[in-house]
Structure formats: C-alpha cells, structure tokens
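Our collaborator T.R. sent over the components below with a one-line note: 'Predict the complex.' Nothing else. No constraints on interfaces, no templates requested, no preferences about which chain binds where. So this is a plain run: every listed entity goes in together, and whatever single assembly comes back becomes the starting point for the next discussion.
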Amino acid sequence: MPSETSTREQAVTMLDIQDLSVVIHRPGRQVAALSNVSFSVAPGEVVGLVGESGGGKSMVARAIVGMLPSGSHATGRVGFDGADVLRMDAADLAAHRGRGAAICFQNPRGALSPTRTVGRQLIDRLVTHQEMTGERARETAKELFESVGIRNPARRLEAYPHELSGGMAQRVMISLATGCAPGLLIADEPTTGLDVTLTREILRQFRHAADTDGRGVLLISHDLASIAEVCDRVVVLYAGTVVETGPAAKVLREPAHPYTRALLRSVPDVGGGRVVATAGGMPLMTAAPHDCPFAPRCAHAGDDCRSTRPETTALEPGWSLACFHPQQAPLAEATSGEPTKADTRIGDVVLKIEDAHVVYRSRFGSGGHHALRGVSLELKTGETLGVVGESGCGKSTLAKLIMGLVEPSEGSVEVAGKSVKKQSRAERTRAQMVFQDPIGSLSPRRTVGDSIAEPLRAAKVSTAERAKKTEAALARMELDGSILTRLPHELSGGQAQRIGIARALVGQPDLIVFDEPTSALDVTVQAQILDVIADVAADAGHGSVFISHDLATVRGFADRVVVLYLGRVVEEGPVDEVFDRPKHPYTRALLGSAPRLGETRTAAVQLVKDLDEADAATGCALAARCPFVTDTCRSQEQTLQSYGESRAACWRVPELPALIEKS
Amino acid sequence: MRILRFVGRRLLQLIPVLLGVVVLTFLLVRVLPGDPIRSILGPNATEADAEAARVRFGLDQPIWKQFLDYLGGLVTGDFGTSIQSGASVTGEMALRLGPTLELVVIAVTIAVLLAIWLGIWSARRADRFGDHSVRIFALFGNSIPEFWLGLVLILVGYAALGWFPAPSGRVDPDTDLTPLTGADLIDALLTGNGPAIGSAAAHLVLPVLTLVIGVLAPLLRSVRASALEVLRSEAYAAAAAHGLPERTLLRGYLRRATLVRLPSLAALVFGTALGSTVLVEYVFSWQGFGQWALRGLLYRDYPVVQASVLIIAFAYVLVFLIADVVHAWLDPRVKI
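Returned assembly:
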C-alpha cells in the first residue's frame, strides 16, 4: 500500500511543472493542448496522471522529455532537478533524456525496434547511461529482465520484439526505461490492452521502482480506478487543464471535482455497481479556456462556471481542485442505486453449440493451434450471456464460430435452429455482430446509412422498408438523421459504435454478438455505450452474447456468464453466483485482479505464471499456473461439474476455501 | 540450416520455371516473322542453297523433333550452333557473359552502397538543402537516356580531360591478358597481370558510371522513403527519447530497419540493368552479352535468342533468391 504522503510536500521535488501551456500551430488550425498545467513529482513518489484521450496526458509526457511535436509553442516551466527542460540546449537535452526522465511507451510492441534483439536494445541503454561495457552490461541486462518478472532471461535477451507477447513486451519496455537509470520514470498507458491478471503485476513493477530505487514515477492512464492503488497522488486532466490534484485514496473515494466523479462513475464495477453515463464529449480547445471546460457536461454548473474559469484552490493541504462547486458526498452513495435488471421473458433457444472444437491449421499440414477445445453453450431469446477470459483464451474464436466465420473441426453450431454451415445468405443475417474497433468495422467508402442498411440488403428487404427500418434503428440509438450521409472517418468513436449497434439491430436478428464493444472507447463514452447496450440486450426478441476481457462490464447486464480458459469453459453459471461466489481457481484469480472502486482488493488466488508461458499439456489446462495444483490435476482432464447454481471444471472446488485460508 | 533448406527448395522450383522459359522462347522465336536462313544467305542464294542450309541446322525437321533435339542438347550443356557464325553457342556465350556480368555486378553494387549511404544521409536532413540536391541529382540521372549520358561521359572523361582510355574495348591488348572467365578485371587479378589490372579498371570507370547514374534514382528513393518511415516510427522515437547517442541510433536502430525493404528492389534493378546494358555496351564498344543477344534477335538466330533468354531468366531467379535470403537475414520477422 502507498504510504501517506501529505507530509511529502516539503520534500525535494524532482519534476516541477509550473503553469505549462502548449499550443500547437498547424496550417489552418490551432490546438491548445495544455493550458496552465502545474504539478510536481518527488523522488520515490508515484503520481497518476488521469484523463480521457485528448486531455493532454501524452503532451505532458512529451514536454517532460523535450519532445514536443513540431509546430508547438510552449510557455511556462518544466523544472527538472532545478533546470528547465523547455530551455535546455541539445547537449543538455541529450543528457536529460533517459538519465533524467525515461518513458515507457504505450504500445510496447511498436516502441521496440523490430530488427534488434531486445537484449541489445537494453544493453544500448546500459552502455549509454550507466557506462557499462561488454560482459557486465549483459549480466545487468539479465538481472533487469529477471527483476521485471521475465523468466529465462538469458534466452529472452536474444529474442526479437515480434517473438514476445503483449505482456512480455511491456515488461521489456519497463526494463528498457529502468535500464536508463532515470530519476523519473514515465509510463504512458502501461496497461492498456493487457489482461487483468497482468495489469496488477505490471503496475506493481512501477510501485517497486519507486519504493526500492527511489525513482519518481508518473503513471499516465485513462483508468483512475485501476492505477489508484499504486499511486500516492493523482492529477486529473480535462481538456488540457488540471481539474483536481490530491492523494490517491482521497480522490478515489471522495472525488470533489464533477469531472473526476463522472470519470469514476463511468467505469463499471466488478461488484455490480451500475455505470452512470455523462453525456457529451471532451471539447477540442483552440485557445486556453476562459470558462470551465467541463461546464457544458456538468450537472452542477452555474452561470459562474460558464463565464469565468475557476482558479485552482486548495481544499486541504495537498488536495486542490479547479471548481466553483466542489462536491462532497462520497461517490459510493451516488452509485448505490441497485441495478434494476428488467425481468425479461426467456424464450426459445437461439444459439446452441455442442462440443465445438476449432483448430487453426498451420500452413504445412502437421500441427496447428487448438483455439477451442470442446465448448458447449445454449442461449435463449431475451437472455444475455457474458464470455470472459484472458486474451488468447478463445473468446474471439467463439465469436467467429457463432457467426460462421470459422468452421468447427468437431461438434456443431446452430443459430435459430439451423446449422450455421447450411445457412443461406439471408439466414446469415439472423446473427449480427458488434465489433471491437468501431470505426474500422465500418466500410470507409460507405455512408452511415448504407452501412446500417447492409444486413437488410442481404436479406433482400425493399428500399422503402429499408429506409424506414434504418430510421427506427437510428432513433433508438438517439442519433440524428443527418448522420446518415456521413462517412466513418467523420464520426467520433462513440457515434461509430452506435452506428455499429444500429447495424446489428436493424434486421431484428435472433442473436447479437458483442465482441469487446467498448474496449476501444474513452471512459465516459464507454459508459454511454454500455448504457445503450444494456438497453439493447434487455430486448426480449433476441439473445445476446457479450464478450469482454473486462469482467466488470460483463457483470452489468449479463444473465449468465462463462469463463473461458485456453479454449475450454472452466466455469459457468448465473452472473451473480459466479462473481460473488466464484468456484474455479482461475475465476477467483481473475476476479481478485479486477479493480474495485474504493476497496483494497486482495486477490485470494495468484496465478504463478503468465499465460504465454503455460503450455497446455495433458490434464487440467490451468495446471501449469494454478497454485493448488496436484498430480491428479496434471494427469486428469477436468470436466464441468455442478457446484450449487454454477458449474466449474475443477475437482478441488470443495477444498479451495480451506486451501486459500492457508496460503 | 533453415536457410539451406529454403535455398534448396527454391533451387528445385527453378526447374519448372526454366522449363517454362525454354518452351515459351522456343515457340515464340519461331512465331516471329523472318527467316534466319534467308537473312544469313543474302538475296542471291537459290532455293536449293537455302534448303541445304536448313538441313544443316536441322530446321527441316518437324517442330517437336527440333524441340526434343534442343532439349537433349541443353541437358548436356549444349545450347546449339549459332546460325550466323556457325560456332557453338555455349562457347560464344561464355566469352560474352563475363564482361557484361562484370559491368553490371560492379555497377549495381556501387549503386546500392551509394543509395544506402546517400538515402540515409538525405532522410536525416529531410527537406533541407542537401536532401533536395541529392534527390534532384538522382532524378536527373534517372531521366537522361543512357547512351547519351555515355557519350557525354566519353566527351568529358576521354576527349576533354583525357583521364580515361578511349571507348574501344575492355582492356589494352598490349597487356597480353590471358582470358579465363571473360571478365577482364578478374582475369587480370587472377593472373596477377599488373598492367592489365590498371587498364581493365580504367576501361571500366566510364561504363560503370553510366550504369550507376542510370539505376541510382529508384534505389535512392526507396532507401530515403524507408529511412524516413523508420525515423518517424514509434520505435525510433522511443530509442531517441531514452537518450541514446546519435551513433548508436544510426547503427542499431536506423540502418538495418531501413535496409529491410531494399533487397527485392535491388534484385529488380539488377535484372533491369542486365537487360539494358545493350546501349551502354554499344557506346563503349564493350563486346558483351547484350550486344550478342541483340544481334541474335535481329538475325532470328534461334539458338542464340533461346540461350540468351534462358540465361537472363536464370539470372533473375538466382538474384531474387539471393535477395530473399538477404531479406530474411535482415528482417527477423520474415519466416523462410
């Protein structure tokens, strides 16, 4: 746990940003990326920089290492150990980068040079910043790899970036940044795209860097709830301005600024709290704002908010915010309204999967990747099935299987009583899918109206009828008719995803598959879309499958949930039963890793390895990672057995509570 | 080991490709209008003379018989007999191939090295004076017809400055060079003939320069474009943001990543250069392969045309194989 840090105010600050404003001039337009930003980071302190995309988080990171984009004009001061980064000359900057402040980049795969082994890349940093040579650098590199949790470091040193999994690449990226021995470690969205089990582990690495090496850490993220645990303080950015700064625990539990509250309420909670959506999106600033930039979206805004910009005032020592109407009620109360799950009528079976196996064959005959190994599911109209698991567990393959995009090598898939294999083109439109990438899943050369009517055209619906139905679907998504003639690149992510849902809905299908529909969206937009999906999923006319790696979003509106692991169902049951009383060790580990608002979480079960290191041999698939493994687990294949209301594929379920107690 | 297996597999694929080339050229040269016998005998020959000549070259046989004979010869390394000269095509070709390969290999190697160096240099100064002048120079070289460029170089280098020998051959005959491979510089080096080395090298300068200027532009553009892409990539920015020194950045993070896409283009340029040396050879009286093939084609000398097409096809396939291996070696993501 982070130590109480209000006393640290007097300590020496390493990074001290004062009144930093960045304006980017581009031909024809001008963007005020940052406006009067001030905050500081001390050695040994972890500071979270939170906000949605477009808030200016990355710009802060770039300003700290002196790599602002061309055409930008910065005023103010980025103090670093007494010097001002904005006024450094080339030689000082070269010394400052890496040794002073080192960034862990978002998307580590892209940020690692593809044609150099990761070991060489790390040694380059050691040679440059720690004056090491030859054998000594190699030894240190090995130790660094080991310290970030890379097993078999000697072998990994020789690996090229494309041979690493996402989690492994992120660990390498952290080791590269720490290899520079920086005073300040900056992590730009270090956990985006990682599984929950990995997210915790990666965040712990940063806390570790602050605690043991005394580095300052600036953790940039859009997800306040998940990083708050390791942070001492958080800084919340909105439209390039700092709206709230304070101790992490305080800001997380009793946020005072309406935007911070909106941000926190937009994140679904694994405990079952329902999201509260805030309408609108972040404005794009062309000049430093003269009013409160959040005012148009704020429920508490008065005339003062719309005419003058609130000064940053201290609420308590170490806790300040820029708002005329600070809120005091604890956040939990506002979200305590129990989700009222509409009692939907459960009807006919729309999806039936029996013992389906999917094998992706490798190019030359032998071998292949076994993506699904005997999955059986049943779904009725009006029902919503949540599918969760880490990446690589077969979630997306399941979606493709249901849509008929891959064929099962064994077993059968029936949608609306008909085998997917034998469906005609029109019958295929009975199952619809909502994709992860909202803009990428719309044809770039088709207008929105065309895209929405697509399934209708496939089902040979007449033109007049098409227009009517498109209009109705659009109205349901609360979108204006004028959007019909636009092209995908003119849409925001939230609008595009509404279009995607409208397209899925328009033909009144029997089944809708949502494949991670919100993971590419900003937090407050995500809440709006989740609202829409909850509404759509509650329809009695169709069944829904909701696939997500984010457990909390599933809990919001699924009736039943299945947990996938390496192509097998390891647990299934009613959503509350599975989430509140998980049976399988894997489910317990997943749930234990998920962030919970305002609670300190303690994972009862810690998996012992990363997914990519666990090889599926005979016996239980989890055997290699399970802390409670016995020889029986290693030799016997586990099948689903009933435990109370849910079923789990583990023979030790009755003993688990006692085992967890002991550990 | 994997590379060896890959090379072996590709060499096996060579067989059907070459077989296809053999069949196609064999048929196509016979479809072309014109008669090789008439063109060598001249207008005064009688019908009987022509018939006798046809029998002598086996052209009176049915096509399939001719083809089988030709194929049988190929297997034993016999490309047939030239209709024009009556000499063995294999022997003539061996004499001609060396000089042209020497010219093209040296020119393309220089062009590739120059393109790498200039391209990266230029990309690092993108949109500045140096960058613009390099690009304009390359474009200029690309737009000048090679024969004209060759003539200008002769005028300047030989006639005006007198730095280089007259464009009258590949080596000074007074040096008494013993021909081994046909490539004079290599022969001179092999026999340790000092004066011949100097003479052959001096004769090479102008034709090589002509070819280099001609093929540099596409290579340079490609290197510059991919270097710019690497410079703007996240990976390079990350390395720069970690404060690595310029030298490490250039050597470890820019160069290899830039070169990844070059091999296949270089192979293409090599193939084009091999085919387009005809004019350069003509201007510099370089008794090479291109000239020989051209004359064969003009006289409808079937065996010569077939042999030269086959050799060019073989060179293409071989060079692309080398390019693929180099590509796989440069780019760890490529699986072979």
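Summary for T.R.: The radius of gyration of chain B is 24 Å.
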